[in-house]
Structure formats: C-alpha cells, structure tokens
Amino acid sequence: MLLRFTGLSVLFILGCLLTVGLPRKGSMVPPLGAQTPLPSGISDQTYRVSVDLVNVLCSVLDRKTNFFVTNLAREDFTLYEDGQPQEIINFARETDMPLTLAMLVDTSDSVSPKLQFIQDTATSFFQTVLRDRDRAMLVEFDSSVTLLQDFTNDPNKMARQIRKLQAAGGTALYDAIAMTCDEKLIRETGRKAIIIVSDGEDFSSRTDMRHALEMALRAESTIFPISISKGGLFGTGDDTEEGDRILRQLAQETGGKVFFPVQVEELDEAFRQINQELRSQYNLGYISSNPRRDGSYRKIEIKVAEGNLKLNYRKGYYAPSN
Q: Which of 154, 171, 188, 237 is the most buried (most CB within 10 A)?
C-alpha cells in the first residue's frame, strides 16, 4: 500500500518509518495513484495518532518599509475557512522552529550558462541557513528527477552535491514538485519549504501543474521560486512569460514569494530574503468547524486589523478523506 497522509493532520509516528527515495536520473516517473510496496521494515499496522489540526504559516510585512513584522499577538489575527470564522487555538512565532528544506534545481539545457552562479549562491545559502536542528535535501530535474542529497543538516554535504549539478535535457518541473512532496515532504512535520531555481517552463513532466500544486498543499510546503528567465545576467532571449506566471502562482497559492534576479548580486539577495522570511513566520493552528472528511479543497483567509500590513500564507488546503 502507498502511505499517504493528508495535509490536515499533525502526525505523531510511533515506530520506525523509513522514507522512499526519489528515482535516480533516467528512471521512469511512476503513474500517479499507482500502488507502491512498503519498504522493508515497515508494517501496514504501524500505529499513528492523528489530530485534525490545520497549521498555517503566515508572514507579515510592513507595506511601507517591506520589513517583516514579528511582534503581533494571537488577538491581532482573524482566520476564516470558506468564509466561516475559525478559532485560533495554537499560536507561535516560529523564529526558532526547525526547518525542513527541499531545493529543486532546474538543470535543463537552457540553465547551462547560469549554473555556476546558481551553484555559488546555493552553497552560500545552505552554509548560512542550516542550523543543527534543520534539515535540507537537494533534487535536480531536467527530463527526469534525481535526488542528489537526502535530508541532512550538514552544509558541506549539500555543497558537494551542488557542485555535481550538470545541465542537460528537458524540464520536468511539475514531476519534481509532485514527487518531492509525495515521497519526502508529506511524511515530515513542522515548517517545510521548497526552493525552486528554474525558468518555470515545463516540457517533460508526466503530471501537470494542478497536481503539483495539490501535492505541495497536501504536504503543507511553502514554495519560494527563483526565476532564471529574466534579462540581464539570466537572460535567455526566450519568451518566458508563461513560466514566470507559473512560478508566481506556485508561490502565491502556498504562501511563498517569487524572485526575479537579473544579476548575480540579486540572486544572492533572493536567498537572503528567503532565509529571513523563514525565520519570521507565525504559526496559526485551528480545528476546522467543518467536520466532513470529504477530501475537498477549502479556502483559507487571514486578516489583521492594521491595514498597512501584507500577509503571505497558503490560500487553502485539502480536507482529509476516508
């Protein structure tokens, strides 16, 4: 049986769970919904305790200064699900909560002239952001999806694998997102973020954007895309408007932010801002007033009384189903 957890549940796993790695380069993407046998050592009788708590990470910025606001209290927020007010029962400022990061790097042919800059800045990012309790993984995607580095808190391990990135082939962005969420991130708890370095164009995936976004929401992962399609240093001369639109939507729906660097200094700044935002979030938790376990998509809206503030948060989630 394929282990799948809803994006709604906080899971406390008793027993030993082993995660399944992503396919190596050149392997076939499994059909969506296909049954995958359990790895050796995992029983389908593993006991779980599941609490139907919806956790929403929210960043708050001052519109005038663009600085993060980190001194708000629970009473400053109101939260709605499908237009109905919800009681916030858990509230925390997540400045020190451990991070689970997945970096997805586009290594298609079009990335080749920019790869050196990506490697340098990505290495610097992990050396800066990773703390002892944090974990990160590295995935490259071109025509297929490859897990280069599984979860680690060692920035040197990440750096060694980043240096192995090589540009070749097409672009399977949607497969990379869906498989990373389905096979890795959905099994994790806490703060989860996906950093995507790509031009947003997808020519090779077997799945589509809708499914990739759904899996990101089910895995409760915030997406931070860094576009490498714009002019200047990262210019390709191609019409990438559609790719940029896709990256924007992935960020907006999951509560992240998209970046469009045009020179190497701005690429480094994008990584710096991602680090800052990940350390400046609020966690709002509530139990939905809608008891139906129908697997439906439910819209989330968060408001604050102060009108000069901008909020970033995921715009919805998928209810559990039987």
A: 171
The 10s digit of each residue's pLDDT in 240-251 is 578 889 999 999
Task: Look up the CATH superfamily of 99-278.
Answer: von Willebrand factor, type A domain (3.40.50.410)
Burial class (CB in 10 A: 0-12, 13-18, 19+), 185: buried
Interior/surface letters 46-60, b for 16+ CB within 10 angstroms, e for the rest: eeeeeeeebbbbbbb
> Given 3-state DSSP classes, what are the helix, strand and coil percentages for the chain, each rounded to the nearest 5?
25, 30, 45
Strands (E), 71-220: 77-81, 84-86, 90-93, 99-106, 135-141, 145-152, 191-198
- Measuring CA to CA, which residue among 175, 213, 151 is closest to residue 27? 175
Return d(Cα 312, Cα 45) in angstroms, integer: 39
- pLDDT band of 235, cuts 50, 70, 90: low
Residue 284 three-state SS: strand
Q: Which CATH class is domain 52-95+280-318?
A: mainly beta
- pLDDT value at residue 113: 82
pLDDT at residue 4, as a whole number: 39
Mind listing the pLDDT tens digit for each residue in 25-36?
444 333 333 333
Question: Tokens representing 51?
Answer: 């609490």
Rounded (5°) CA angle 248-254-258: 30
Question: Which pLDDT does position 32 carry in this prediction?
Answer: 35
Q: Where are the domains of the chain?
A: 52-95+280-318, 99-278
pTM: 0.80
